[in-house]
Design brief:
Blueprint: H1 13-16, E1 25-26, H2 33-43, H3 47-62, E2 84-85, H4 100-108, H5 111-118, E3 121-126, E4 129-135, H6 137-141, E5 145-148, H7 149-154, H8 158-164, H9 175-183, E6 187-192, E7 202-207, E8 214-215, E9 218-223, E10 228-236, E11 244-246, E12 249-254, E13 259-267, E14 272-275, E15 277-282, E16 287-294, E17 299-302, E18 305-308, E19 314-323, E20 328-337, E21 343-352, E22 357-366, E23 373-383, E24 389-398, E25 403-413, H10 416-424, H11 429-445, H12 450-464
Parallel strand pairs: 3-7, 6-9, 7-10, 8-11, 9-12, 10-13, 11-14, 12-15, 13-16, 14-17, 15-18, 16-19, 17-20, 18-20, 19-21, 20-22, 21-23, 22-24, 23-25
Antiparallel strand pairs: 1-2, 3-4, 5-6
Length: 469
Amino acid sequence: MKEKTYVDDIDRSLYDFRNEDKDAYKLEEGLTPEIVSKISEEKKDPEWMKEFRLKSLEIYNEMEIPDWGPSIDGLDMDHILTYVRPKDNKMQNKWEDVPEEIKDTFTKLGIPQAEHKSLAGVGAQYDSELVYHNVKDEVVAQGVVYSDLESAMQGEYGEMIQKHFMKLVPPKDHKFAALHGAVWSGGSFVYVPPKVHVEIPLQSYFRLNAAGAGQFEHTLIIVDEGAYLHFIEGCSAPKYNVANLHAGCVELYVGKNATLRYSTIENWSKNMYNLNTKRAKVEEGGKIEWVSGSFGSHVSYLYPMSILNGANARCEFSGVTFAGKGQNLDTGTKVLHNAPNTSSYINTRSISKDGGISTFRSSVVVAKKAKGSKAAVSCQSLMLDDISRSDTIPAMDIRTKDCDIGHEAKIGRISDETVFYLMSRGMSEEDARALIVSGFADNVGKELPLEYAVEMNNLIRLEMKGSIG
Protein backbone atom coordinates (compact mmCIF):
# COMPACT_ATOMS: atom_id res chain seq x y z
CA MET A 1 0.00 0.00 0.00
CA LYS A 2 1.32 3.44 -0.93
CA GLU A 3 2.32 5.70 1.93
CA LYS A 4 0.21 8.79 2.13
CA THR A 5 2.08 12.07 2.24
CA TYR A 6 0.15 14.89 3.82
CA VAL A 7 0.83 18.27 5.33
CA ASP A 8 -1.62 20.10 7.59
CA ASP A 9 -1.29 23.42 5.82
CA ILE A 10 0.31 24.90 2.75
CA ASP A 11 3.50 26.93 2.92
CA ARG A 12 1.98 30.27 1.96
CA SER A 13 4.81 32.39 3.38
CA LEU A 14 4.64 34.74 0.38
CA TYR A 15 1.17 35.85 1.52
CA ASP A 16 0.98 34.92 5.21
CA PHE A 17 3.50 37.41 6.56
CA ARG A 18 1.87 40.15 8.61
CA ASN A 19 2.74 43.47 10.17
CA GLU A 20 2.08 44.44 13.79
CA ASP A 21 -0.84 46.86 13.72
CA LYS A 22 -0.32 48.34 17.19
CA ASP A 23 -0.17 51.82 15.69
CA ALA A 24 -3.24 51.39 13.50
CA TYR A 25 -6.33 53.54 14.03
CA LYS A 26 -9.44 51.36 14.41
CA LEU A 27 -13.09 51.98 15.01
CA GLU A 28 -14.78 49.68 17.50
CA GLU A 29 -16.13 46.29 16.42
CA GLY A 30 -19.69 45.90 15.24
CA LEU A 31 -22.15 47.82 13.10
CA THR A 32 -24.13 50.78 14.43
CA PRO A 33 -25.33 54.13 13.04
CA GLU A 34 -22.61 55.78 15.17
CA ILE A 35 -19.87 53.67 13.58
CA VAL A 36 -21.21 54.32 10.06
CA SER A 37 -21.38 58.06 10.78
CA LYS A 38 -17.81 57.97 12.07
CA ILE A 39 -16.61 56.26 8.87
CA SER A 40 -18.41 58.95 6.87
CA GLU A 41 -16.67 61.61 8.95
CA GLU A 42 -13.26 59.97 8.47
CA LYS A 43 -13.89 59.95 4.71
CA LYS A 44 -15.09 63.57 4.58
CA ASP A 45 -18.15 62.35 2.66
CA PRO A 46 -20.49 64.78 0.93
CA GLU A 47 -23.91 64.87 2.58
CA TRP A 48 -25.54 62.61 -0.03
CA MET A 49 -23.02 59.85 0.68
CA LYS A 50 -23.53 60.05 4.44
CA GLU A 51 -27.29 59.67 3.90
CA PHE A 52 -26.66 56.79 1.48
CA ARG A 53 -24.55 54.98 4.09
CA LEU A 54 -27.14 55.31 6.84
CA LYS A 55 -29.97 54.21 4.53
CA SER A 56 -27.87 51.19 3.48
CA LEU A 57 -27.42 50.26 7.13
CA GLU A 58 -31.21 50.31 7.59
CA ILE A 59 -31.58 47.99 4.58
CA TYR A 60 -28.85 45.70 5.96
CA ASN A 61 -30.67 45.35 9.26
CA GLU A 62 -33.93 44.48 7.47
CA MET A 63 -32.51 41.77 5.18
CA GLU A 64 -31.89 38.09 5.86
CA ILE A 65 -28.56 36.29 5.50
CA PRO A 66 -28.54 34.04 2.36
CA ASP A 67 -29.47 30.46 3.22
CA TRP A 68 -28.99 28.75 -0.15
CA GLY A 69 -25.17 28.54 -0.33
CA PRO A 70 -22.22 27.65 1.93
CA SER A 71 -22.68 28.35 5.62
CA ILE A 72 -21.33 31.66 6.91
CA ASP A 73 -22.28 30.96 10.54
CA GLY A 74 -18.67 31.61 11.57
CA LEU A 75 -19.00 35.24 10.52
CA ASP A 76 -20.12 37.44 13.41
CA MET A 77 -20.52 41.09 12.40
CA ASP A 78 -20.52 42.10 16.06
CA HIS A 79 -16.83 41.19 16.11
CA ILE A 80 -15.71 42.55 12.72
CA LEU A 81 -13.72 45.78 12.51
CA THR A 82 -15.28 47.77 9.67
CA TYR A 83 -12.59 50.46 9.53
CA VAL A 84 -8.84 50.17 10.10
CA ARG A 85 -6.21 52.53 8.79
CA PRO A 86 -2.50 53.10 9.28
CA LYS A 87 -1.79 55.85 11.82
CA ASP A 88 -0.24 57.92 9.05
CA ASN A 89 -2.93 57.40 6.41
CA LYS A 90 -1.96 60.08 3.92
CA MET A 91 -1.99 58.61 0.41
CA GLN A 92 1.34 58.99 -1.39
CA ASN A 93 2.13 59.44 -5.07
CA LYS A 94 5.81 58.64 -4.63
CA TRP A 95 6.80 55.14 -3.62
CA GLU A 96 9.66 56.34 -1.41
CA ASP A 97 7.18 58.35 0.71
CA VAL A 98 5.05 55.32 1.68
CA PRO A 99 5.63 54.25 5.34
CA GLU A 100 8.45 51.72 5.50
CA GLU A 101 6.44 48.83 7.00
CA ILE A 102 3.68 49.13 4.38
CA LYS A 103 6.20 49.61 1.58
CA ASP A 104 7.91 46.39 2.69
CA THR A 105 4.58 44.53 2.50
CA PHE A 106 3.89 45.57 -1.09
CA THR A 107 7.51 45.00 -2.12
CA LYS A 108 7.22 41.38 -0.94
CA LEU A 109 4.05 41.07 -3.04
CA GLY A 110 5.83 42.39 -6.14
CA ILE A 111 3.83 45.58 -6.67
CA PRO A 112 6.70 48.03 -7.41
CA GLN A 113 8.31 45.54 -9.79
CA ALA A 114 5.06 45.03 -11.69
CA GLU A 115 4.52 48.78 -11.91
CA HIS A 116 7.94 49.41 -13.39
CA LYS A 117 7.70 46.55 -15.87
CA SER A 118 4.23 46.54 -17.30
CA LEU A 119 1.61 48.80 -15.74
CA ALA A 120 0.23 52.20 -16.72
CA GLY A 121 -0.91 52.98 -13.20
CA VAL A 122 -1.08 51.37 -9.76
CA GLY A 123 -3.23 51.84 -6.67
CA ALA A 124 -2.33 49.99 -3.45
CA GLN A 125 -4.84 49.67 -0.61
CA TYR A 126 -3.81 48.60 2.90
CA ASP A 127 -6.73 47.68 5.17
CA SER A 128 -9.34 50.46 4.74
CA GLU A 129 -7.25 53.10 2.96
CA LEU A 130 -5.27 53.59 -0.24
CA VAL A 131 -1.66 54.24 0.73
CA TYR A 132 -0.14 54.66 -2.73
CA HIS A 133 -1.38 55.76 -6.11
CA ASN A 134 0.47 56.66 -9.27
CA VAL A 135 -0.38 56.96 -12.98
CA LYS A 136 2.03 57.35 -15.87
CA ASP A 137 2.12 60.82 -17.42
CA GLU A 138 1.29 59.56 -20.91
CA VAL A 139 -1.94 57.99 -19.60
CA VAL A 140 -2.93 61.23 -17.87
CA ALA A 141 -2.18 63.06 -21.14
CA GLN A 142 -4.80 60.87 -22.86
CA GLY A 143 -7.42 62.28 -20.50
CA VAL A 144 -7.72 59.03 -18.52
CA VAL A 145 -8.76 59.48 -14.90
CA TYR A 146 -7.44 56.87 -12.44
CA SER A 147 -7.89 57.88 -8.84
CA ASP A 148 -8.94 56.66 -5.45
CA LEU A 149 -12.73 56.90 -5.27
CA GLU A 150 -12.87 59.31 -2.31
CA SER A 151 -10.64 61.95 -3.95
CA ALA A 152 -12.62 61.73 -7.20
CA MET A 153 -15.91 62.04 -5.31
CA GLN A 154 -14.75 65.12 -3.43
CA GLY A 155 -13.39 66.72 -6.62
CA GLU A 156 -14.67 67.45 -10.11
CA TYR A 157 -16.03 63.92 -10.69
CA GLY A 158 -18.42 64.00 -7.73
CA GLU A 159 -21.50 64.36 -9.95
CA MET A 160 -20.44 61.49 -12.23
CA ILE A 161 -19.82 59.24 -9.23
CA GLN A 162 -23.15 60.14 -7.62
CA LYS A 163 -24.89 59.25 -10.91
CA HIS A 164 -23.27 55.79 -11.08
CA PHE A 165 -22.46 54.72 -7.50
CA MET A 166 -24.30 51.52 -6.54
CA LYS A 167 -26.76 51.87 -9.39
CA LEU A 168 -25.70 48.52 -10.90
CA VAL A 169 -25.49 46.89 -7.46
CA PRO A 170 -28.13 48.63 -5.33
CA PRO A 171 -28.02 48.06 -1.55
CA LYS A 172 -31.30 46.12 -1.78
CA ASP A 173 -29.60 43.54 -4.04
CA HIS A 174 -28.61 41.39 -1.05
CA LYS A 175 -27.62 41.78 2.61
CA PHE A 176 -23.89 42.16 1.95
CA ALA A 177 -24.44 44.72 -0.80
CA ALA A 178 -26.30 46.75 1.83
CA LEU A 179 -23.40 46.22 4.25
CA HIS A 180 -21.01 47.47 1.57
CA GLY A 181 -23.15 50.55 0.97
CA ALA A 182 -22.93 51.38 4.67
CA VAL A 183 -19.23 50.87 5.38
CA TRP A 184 -17.41 50.94 2.02
CA SER A 185 -13.92 52.40 2.15
CA GLY A 186 -11.19 52.85 -0.44
CA GLY A 187 -11.18 51.48 -3.95
CA SER A 188 -10.67 52.93 -7.41
CA PHE A 189 -12.33 55.26 -9.88
CA VAL A 190 -11.43 55.02 -13.57
CA TYR A 191 -12.82 57.03 -16.46
CA VAL A 192 -11.58 56.41 -20.01
CA PRO A 193 -12.72 59.10 -22.50
CA PRO A 194 -14.28 58.23 -25.90
CA LYS A 195 -12.00 56.41 -28.38
CA VAL A 196 -9.02 56.36 -26.00
CA HIS A 197 -7.12 53.07 -25.94
CA VAL A 198 -5.08 52.50 -22.78
CA GLU A 199 -2.44 50.18 -24.23
CA ILE A 200 -0.95 48.91 -20.94
CA PRO A 201 -2.98 47.80 -17.91
CA LEU A 202 -3.99 49.68 -14.80
CA GLN A 203 -3.86 47.73 -11.53
CA SER A 204 -5.24 47.91 -8.01
CA TYR A 205 -3.95 45.69 -5.21
CA PHE A 206 -5.86 45.17 -1.96
CA ARG A 207 -4.06 43.94 1.13
CA LEU A 208 -5.94 43.20 4.36
CA ASN A 209 -3.45 43.10 7.24
CA ALA A 210 -5.54 43.46 10.41
CA ALA A 211 -6.98 40.43 12.22
CA GLY A 212 -10.76 40.27 12.59
CA ALA A 213 -11.27 43.09 10.10
CA GLY A 214 -13.32 43.62 6.97
CA GLN A 215 -12.29 45.18 3.68
CA PHE A 216 -14.98 46.97 1.69
CA GLU A 217 -13.34 48.68 -1.29
CA HIS A 218 -15.49 50.01 -4.14
CA THR A 219 -14.30 49.93 -7.75
CA LEU A 220 -16.13 52.11 -10.29
CA ILE A 221 -14.95 52.03 -13.91
CA ILE A 222 -16.52 53.90 -16.82
CA VAL A 223 -15.15 53.12 -20.30
CA ASP A 224 -16.70 55.56 -22.73
CA GLU A 225 -17.71 55.01 -26.37
CA GLY A 226 -15.09 53.26 -28.53
CA ALA A 227 -12.48 53.16 -25.73
CA TYR A 228 -10.37 50.23 -24.44
CA LEU A 229 -9.02 49.36 -20.99
CA HIS A 230 -7.45 46.37 -19.26
CA PHE A 231 -7.82 46.59 -15.48
CA ILE A 232 -6.10 44.11 -13.14
CA GLU A 233 -7.13 43.50 -9.55
CA GLY A 234 -5.13 41.49 -7.02
CA CYS A 235 -5.91 40.74 -3.38
CA SER A 236 -4.36 38.82 -0.50
CA ALA A 237 -4.27 38.63 3.30
CA PRO A 238 -2.27 36.80 5.98
CA LYS A 239 -3.82 33.90 7.85
CA TYR A 240 -5.34 34.45 11.30
CA ASN A 241 -7.36 32.21 13.61
CA VAL A 242 -10.30 34.64 13.57
CA ALA A 243 -12.73 35.40 10.76
CA ASN A 244 -11.97 38.18 8.30
CA LEU A 245 -14.47 39.54 5.79
CA HIS A 246 -14.17 40.86 2.26
CA ALA A 247 -17.35 42.48 0.92
CA GLY A 248 -16.16 44.70 -1.89
CA CYS A 249 -18.16 45.89 -4.87
CA VAL A 250 -17.19 46.35 -8.53
CA GLU A 251 -19.34 48.34 -10.97
CA LEU A 252 -18.28 48.46 -14.61
CA TYR A 253 -19.90 50.62 -17.29
CA VAL A 254 -18.88 49.69 -20.84
CA GLY A 255 -19.98 52.21 -23.47
CA LYS A 256 -21.00 51.79 -27.09
CA ASN A 257 -18.33 49.85 -29.06
CA ALA A 258 -16.00 49.97 -26.03
CA THR A 259 -14.04 47.03 -24.54
CA LEU A 260 -13.11 46.39 -20.93
CA ARG A 261 -10.97 43.45 -19.83
CA TYR A 262 -11.18 42.90 -16.07
CA SER A 263 -8.69 40.41 -14.58
CA THR A 264 -8.75 39.31 -10.94
CA ILE A 265 -6.66 36.97 -8.82
CA GLU A 266 -8.23 36.55 -5.37
CA ASN A 267 -5.77 34.85 -3.06
CA TRP A 268 -7.27 35.52 0.35
CA SER A 269 -6.18 33.46 3.35
CA LYS A 270 -8.30 30.55 4.54
CA ASN A 271 -9.99 32.40 7.40
CA MET A 272 -11.59 34.85 4.96
CA TYR A 273 -15.29 35.09 4.09
CA ASN A 274 -15.26 36.46 0.55
CA LEU A 275 -18.69 37.95 -0.22
CA ASN A 276 -17.83 40.15 -3.17
CA THR A 277 -20.24 41.54 -5.80
CA LYS A 278 -19.22 42.44 -9.36
CA ARG A 279 -21.44 43.67 -12.16
CA ALA A 280 -20.97 45.13 -15.65
CA LYS A 281 -23.40 46.90 -17.97
CA VAL A 282 -22.49 46.76 -21.66
CA GLU A 283 -23.98 49.04 -24.30
CA GLU A 284 -24.41 48.51 -28.06
CA GLY A 285 -21.43 46.77 -29.69
CA GLY A 286 -19.45 46.84 -26.44
CA LYS A 287 -17.58 43.94 -24.86
CA ILE A 288 -16.74 42.85 -21.31
CA GLU A 289 -14.02 40.23 -20.75
CA TRP A 290 -13.82 38.74 -17.26
CA VAL A 291 -10.75 36.73 -16.22
CA SER A 292 -11.11 35.37 -12.70
CA GLY A 293 -8.89 33.25 -10.44
CA SER A 294 -10.19 32.21 -6.99
CA PHE A 295 -7.61 30.46 -4.81
CA GLY A 296 -8.07 31.58 -1.23
CA SER A 297 -10.77 32.20 1.39
CA HIS A 298 -12.65 29.86 3.70
CA VAL A 299 -15.98 30.56 2.01
CA SER A 300 -16.66 32.43 -1.23
CA TYR A 301 -19.84 33.70 -2.83
CA LEU A 302 -18.69 35.24 -6.12
CA TYR A 303 -20.73 35.56 -9.35
CA PRO A 304 -19.66 38.43 -11.63
CA MET A 305 -22.68 39.51 -13.70
CA SER A 306 -22.83 40.95 -17.22
CA ILE A 307 -25.87 42.91 -18.39
CA LEU A 308 -25.75 42.96 -22.20
CA ASN A 309 -27.92 46.02 -22.62
CA GLY A 310 -27.31 47.03 -26.24
CA ALA A 311 -27.56 45.21 -29.57
CA ASN A 312 -24.45 43.14 -30.44
CA ALA A 313 -23.01 43.52 -26.93
CA ARG A 314 -20.68 40.65 -25.96
CA CYS A 315 -19.39 38.94 -22.84
CA GLU A 316 -16.57 36.46 -22.30
CA PHE A 317 -15.95 34.91 -18.88
CA SER A 318 -12.91 32.74 -18.07
CA GLY A 319 -12.54 31.47 -14.50
CA VAL A 320 -10.47 29.02 -12.48
CA THR A 321 -11.19 28.01 -8.86
CA PHE A 322 -9.03 25.90 -6.52
CA ALA A 323 -10.67 24.62 -3.30
CA GLY A 324 -8.44 22.89 -0.75
CA LYS A 325 -8.89 21.67 2.81
CA GLY A 326 -11.46 23.70 4.77
CA GLN A 327 -12.60 25.68 1.74
CA ASN A 328 -16.08 25.95 0.28
CA LEU A 329 -15.87 28.09 -2.85
CA ASP A 330 -19.20 28.84 -4.47
CA THR A 331 -18.41 30.73 -7.66
CA GLY A 332 -19.73 31.27 -11.15
CA THR A 333 -21.20 33.97 -13.33
CA LYS A 334 -24.48 35.50 -14.49
CA VAL A 335 -25.39 36.93 -17.90
CA LEU A 336 -28.49 38.84 -18.91
CA HIS A 337 -29.06 39.07 -22.67
CA ASN A 338 -31.22 42.17 -22.81
CA ALA A 339 -30.93 43.19 -26.48
CA PRO A 340 -30.87 41.56 -29.95
CA ASN A 341 -27.84 39.70 -31.30
CA THR A 342 -25.92 39.69 -28.03
CA SER A 343 -23.47 36.89 -27.28
CA SER A 344 -21.82 35.33 -24.24
CA TYR A 345 -19.20 32.62 -23.75
CA ILE A 346 -18.46 31.15 -20.31
CA ASN A 347 -15.44 28.88 -19.84
CA THR A 348 -14.48 27.70 -16.34
CA ARG A 349 -12.25 25.18 -14.58
CA SER A 350 -12.61 24.18 -10.94
CA ILE A 351 -10.29 21.97 -8.91
CA SER A 352 -10.92 20.50 -5.45
CA LYS A 353 -8.73 18.46 -3.10
CA ASP A 354 -8.35 17.40 0.55
CA GLY A 355 -12.11 17.65 1.15
CA GLY A 356 -12.46 21.05 -0.50
CA ILE A 357 -15.84 21.89 -2.01
CA SER A 358 -16.08 23.67 -5.34
CA THR A 359 -19.48 24.70 -6.69
CA PHE A 360 -20.01 26.36 -10.06
CA ARG A 361 -23.24 28.27 -10.61
CA SER A 362 -24.20 29.93 -13.85
CA SER A 363 -27.31 31.90 -14.73
CA VAL A 364 -28.05 32.76 -18.35
CA VAL A 365 -31.18 34.82 -18.99
CA VAL A 366 -32.25 35.64 -22.54
CA ALA A 367 -34.99 38.27 -22.63
CA LYS A 368 -37.87 38.11 -25.11
CA LYS A 369 -36.42 41.06 -27.05
CA ALA A 370 -32.95 39.46 -27.31
CA LYS A 371 -33.63 37.73 -30.63
CA GLY A 372 -30.63 36.32 -32.49
CA SER A 373 -28.56 36.00 -29.32
CA LYS A 374 -26.02 33.26 -28.63
CA ALA A 375 -24.81 31.82 -25.33
CA ALA A 376 -22.38 28.97 -24.61
CA VAL A 377 -21.38 27.62 -21.20
CA SER A 378 -18.52 25.17 -20.65
CA CYS A 379 -17.58 24.15 -17.10
CA GLN A 380 -15.13 21.40 -16.19
CA SER A 381 -14.30 20.14 -12.70
CA LEU A 382 -11.39 18.03 -11.48
CA MET A 383 -11.44 16.25 -8.11
CA LEU A 384 -8.05 15.11 -6.85
CA ASP A 385 -9.24 12.59 -4.25
CA ASP A 386 -12.34 10.76 -3.02
CA ILE A 387 -13.15 13.13 -0.14
CA SER A 388 -13.53 16.31 -2.21
CA ARG A 389 -16.66 17.54 -3.87
CA SER A 390 -17.55 19.38 -7.03
CA ASP A 391 -21.01 20.51 -8.16
CA THR A 392 -22.28 22.27 -11.26
CA ILE A 393 -25.56 24.18 -10.97
CA PRO A 394 -26.51 25.80 -14.28
CA ALA A 395 -29.68 27.83 -14.68
CA MET A 396 -31.09 29.01 -18.00
CA ASP A 397 -34.13 31.22 -18.50
CA ILE A 398 -34.81 31.55 -22.22
CA ARG A 399 -37.70 33.81 -23.27
CA THR A 400 -37.31 33.66 -27.07
CA LYS A 401 -37.03 30.78 -29.55
CA ASP A 402 -34.83 32.85 -31.85
CA CYS A 403 -31.52 32.17 -30.10
CA ASP A 404 -28.68 29.63 -29.92
CA ILE A 405 -27.92 28.28 -26.43
CA GLY A 406 -25.46 25.56 -25.41
CA HIS A 407 -24.19 24.10 -22.14
CA GLU A 408 -21.64 21.41 -21.36
CA ALA A 409 -20.28 20.21 -18.04
CA LYS A 410 -17.66 17.60 -17.21
CA ILE A 411 -16.57 16.30 -13.79
CA GLY A 412 -13.74 13.83 -13.37
CA ARG A 413 -10.60 12.70 -11.54
CA ILE A 414 -6.92 12.50 -12.45
CA SER A 415 -6.22 9.38 -14.46
CA ASP A 416 -3.81 6.94 -12.75
CA GLU A 417 -2.64 5.90 -16.21
CA THR A 418 -1.60 9.45 -17.07
CA VAL A 419 0.27 9.82 -13.77
CA PHE A 420 2.00 6.47 -14.35
CA TYR A 421 3.01 7.51 -17.89
CA LEU A 422 4.57 10.78 -16.68
CA MET A 423 6.38 8.97 -13.86
CA SER A 424 7.76 6.51 -16.40
CA ARG A 425 9.26 9.50 -18.19
CA GLY A 426 11.20 10.45 -15.04
CA MET A 427 8.81 12.77 -13.16
CA SER A 428 7.99 12.38 -9.48
CA GLU A 429 4.36 11.62 -8.66
CA GLU A 430 3.95 15.03 -7.08
CA ASP A 431 5.31 16.82 -10.17
CA ALA A 432 3.22 14.64 -12.49
CA ARG A 433 0.00 15.50 -10.69
CA ALA A 434 0.88 19.19 -10.52
CA LEU A 435 1.60 19.18 -14.26
CA ILE A 436 -1.77 17.59 -15.01
CA VAL A 437 -3.59 20.15 -12.86
CA SER A 438 -1.69 23.04 -14.46
CA GLY A 439 -2.57 21.68 -17.89
CA PHE A 440 -6.22 21.37 -16.88
CA ALA A 441 -6.27 25.02 -15.78
CA ASP A 442 -4.15 26.26 -18.70
CA ASN A 443 -7.11 27.03 -20.93
CA VAL A 444 -8.11 29.73 -18.46
CA GLY A 445 -4.66 30.55 -17.10
CA LYS A 446 -3.38 31.68 -20.47
CA GLU A 447 -5.98 34.47 -20.38
CA LEU A 448 -4.33 35.97 -17.29
CA PRO A 449 -1.66 38.67 -17.51
CA LEU A 450 1.78 37.04 -17.56
CA GLU A 451 2.79 37.68 -13.94
CA TYR A 452 -0.57 36.35 -12.71
CA ALA A 453 -0.38 33.25 -14.92
CA VAL A 454 2.99 32.51 -13.28
CA GLU A 455 1.45 33.18 -9.85
CA MET A 456 -1.46 30.85 -10.60
CA ASN A 457 0.89 28.00 -11.53
CA ASN A 458 2.97 28.64 -8.41
CA LEU A 459 -0.19 28.55 -6.28
CA ILE A 460 -1.29 25.28 -7.87
CA ARG A 461 2.13 23.80 -7.16
CA LEU A 462 2.00 25.04 -3.55
CA GLU A 463 -1.47 23.57 -3.10
CA MET A 464 -0.42 20.25 -4.60
CA LYS A 465 2.80 19.91 -2.63
CA GLY A 466 2.69 17.01 -0.21
CA SER A 467 -1.08 16.67 -0.38
CA ILE A 468 -1.53 13.65 -2.60
CA GLY A 469 0.31 10.39 -2.77
